[in-house]
UniProtKB/TrEMBL annotation:
This is Nitrogenase protein alpha chain. Its EC number is 1.18.6.1. The lineage of its organism: Bacteria, Pseudomonadati, Thermodesulfobacteriota, Desulfovibrionia, Desulfovibrionales. Residues 65-526 form the Nitrogenase/oxidoreductase component domain. Residues 1-45 are annotated as: Disordered. Residues 12-22 have a biased composition (Basic and acidic residues). Residues 24-34 have a biased composition (Basic residues). Keywords: ATP-binding, Iron, Iron-sulfur, Metal-binding, Molybdenum, Nitrogen fixation, Nucleotide-binding, Oxidoreductase.
Length: 551
């Protein structure tokens, strides 16, 4: 441990950056340097970070693909849409429940297709002669077997390369099946989310948002019964998080019209526009839907965060404040008061063991920020954090959006033109928003991760394996959070590793109950002696070395 503090003290963030990039060829080093920034601990002086750009070929990135962002992330947690992967079988199989998104149908007989993996299983023949007929067949087969309310088609790389038109197939099959069965309406729509679209999962989120907005939201005007109606956007019920949030909202008397898309039903998506407020958990994956709903229906949005006890309380209060009803505010306070004793008791027992420990968090586009709150509640410091695929606004805050340069890769992803709905645009909500804004209530804002991090800590975009290894060598953090691809390499370095994508086999971590779960899990990990016995193979045997041939 002595070497650890010595190293931390002796290296400035600039020196760490130099260490991380020193093995790269000059051009690569120049690009990566812009993706590694020292935080200033203050909003106004937050530096610009390069993000949402292509990963340099050959670098072992932590990223996934556009198909993963569309099918795996945004639509994957939907239980009553038959989600068909049009492509070779691997894409469907590896995006099937590996994210641990959970669902709870209202009755055991209710539709739930999440336990199935639907794929057209394209083979060489389909690649050469086209896969559209096979796709039509798959849609018909799924329809005959399940009679679902909706079928969605997800394009994998070869679909785009050979030019199968999934949208034409969707239109045709929707028309045919609805003609054949006039008593059962089925919605069919496709996504051009080929893996290579854009530079990461982020492109897939945007594609998913566009199609859900175009084909689903607003299909039915039948409102949900209840008071204080909100949607929860960007909560995918990993490890049961949404169950905790649903329970909190219900006890407060807040009506959840829909969640996009954890523990969700397509019927609720269809009437999401009947809510009075959109709340956003994961800004990166779904801000597009919130923005488009505000333009079309006049529903304002606010950023919330149910990771961390303090943030959960703050989010509940903010929702209550929007509705401005004393009865609701009192109930929210009562629920917070019911929850806090367990949180405080857990902290009193674990904090003496976690205080002063250090963490690093490298996750997709939102958790690397949100989970810092849980660590700080435990008295732990986040030394470095980063997103795999988020944009500058997720790092620096939405205030920088006007200065973000749109490159060819982003231009590839369609921006929908949305206008106010002539009959359904809610002018009252617009007026309510203006009145609250005048009182200092913040809408449509996300301050980003960097301004909230301590001075001298690092924000690193699209971290890769080489840099992760270096960071561990330089800082020896007490815990490193990332995903399954990183897990075992990190553990071999003798550092405990927690998956913040799938939560390993743990969770829920949202809300107050989730916070208690998380404190206990992290206490167990950072205080286990087992890690100090781990010797990486390269510590015991000489490392293989080679010379690079780019000079
Ligand atoms: Fe949003 Fe997510 Fe995340 Fe994300 Fe993801 Fe995820 Fe994630 Mo894995 S939607 S950006 S694309 S919070 S699957 S539930 S954990 S990378 S930080």
């Amino acid at each position: 441990m002595a070497t650890k503090s010595k190293k931390q003290k002796s290296l400035t963030p600039d020196e760490v950056r130099q260490e991380l990039i020193k093995k790269y060829p000059p051009k690569v080093a120049r690009k990566r340097a812009k993706q590694i920034q020292a935080n200033t601990g203050d909003e106004a002086s937050t530096p610009e970070i390069l993000s949402n750009v292509r990963t340099i070929p050959g670098i072992m990135t932590m990223r996934g693909c556009s198909y993963a962002g569309c099918k795996g992330v945004v639509l994957g947690p939907t239980r009553d849409i038959v989600n068909i992967t049009h492509g070779p079988i691997g894409c469907g199989f590896y995006s099937w429940l590996t994210r641990r998104n959970q669902t709870e149908p209202p009755t055991p007989e209710s539709e739930n297709y999440m336990t199935y993996c639907f794929s057209t299983d394209m083979n060489e023949n389909d690649i050469v002669f086209g896969g559209e007929n096979k796709l039509k067949q798959a849609i018909r087969e799924a329809y005959d077997l399940f009679k679902p309310r909706a079928i969605a088609i997800f394009s994998t790389c070869p679909v785009g390369l050979i030019g199968d038109d999934v949208h034409a197939v969707a239109r045709e099959m929707k028309e045919t099946l609805n003609k054949e069965n006039p008593d059962h309406f089925i919605n069919i729509f496709g996504f051009s989310c080929e893996g290579y679209k854009g530079v990461s999962q982020s492109a897939g989120h945007h594609i998913a948002n566009n199609q859900i907005f175009t084909h689903v939201i607003g299909l039915t005007d039948k409102p949900k019964e209840g008071k204080y109606k909100i949607n929860m956007l960007g909560e995918y019920n990993i490890g049961g998080d949404a169950f905790v949030i649903d329970d909190l909202l219900e006890r407060c008397g807040i009506t959840l019209v829909s969640t996009f898309s954890g523990n969700s039903s397509i019927h609720d998506f269809e009437r999401a526009h009947t809510a009075d407020l959109n709340t956003i958990m994961c800004h990166r994956s779904i801000n597009y839907v919130a923005e488009m709903m505000e333009i079309k229906y006049g529903i304002p949005w606010i950023k919330v965060n149910f990771i961390g006890a303090k943030e959960s309380a703050k989010s509940l209060r903010k929702i209550a404040q929007y509705f401005g009803d004393k009865e609701l505010m009192d109930r929210v306070e009562q629920v917070i008061a019911e929850e806090m004793p367990a949180v405080e008791a857990a902290l009193a027992s674990i904090k003496p063991r976690t205080e002063g420990k250090t963490a690093m968090l490298f996750v997709g586009g939102s958790r690397a920020h949100h989970y810092q709150d849980l660590f700080s509640e435990m008295g732990m410091k986040t030394l470095a954090a980063g997103y795999e695929f988020a944009h500058r606004d997720d790092y620096e805050g939405r205030r920088v959006i006007p200065s973000i340069q749109v490159d060819a890769d982003s231009r590839n992803i369609e921006e929908l033109e949305v206008c106010p709905d002539p009959t359904r645009y809610d002018k009252e909500l617009e007026a309510k928003k203006k009145a609250l804004e005048a009182q200092g209530y913040e809408f449509s804002d996300y301050k980003g991760m960097m301004p909230e991090m301590e001075q001298g800590t690092l924000s690193i975009d699209d971290l890769n394996q080489h840099e992760a290894d270096k960071l561990i060598e330089l800082y020896k953090p007490d815990i490193f959070c990332a995903g399954i691809k990183e897990k075992f390499g990190i553990q071999k370095c003798g550092v405990p590793m927690k998956q913040l994508h799938s939560y390993d086999s743990g969770g829920p971590y949202a809300g107050f109950k989730g916070a208690v779960n998380f404190y206990k899990e992290i206490d167990r990990l950072v205080n286990s002696k087992v890690w100090s016995f781990v010797k990486a193979p390269w510590n015991k045997n000489p490392e293989l070395t080679a010379t690079y041939n780019w000079e």
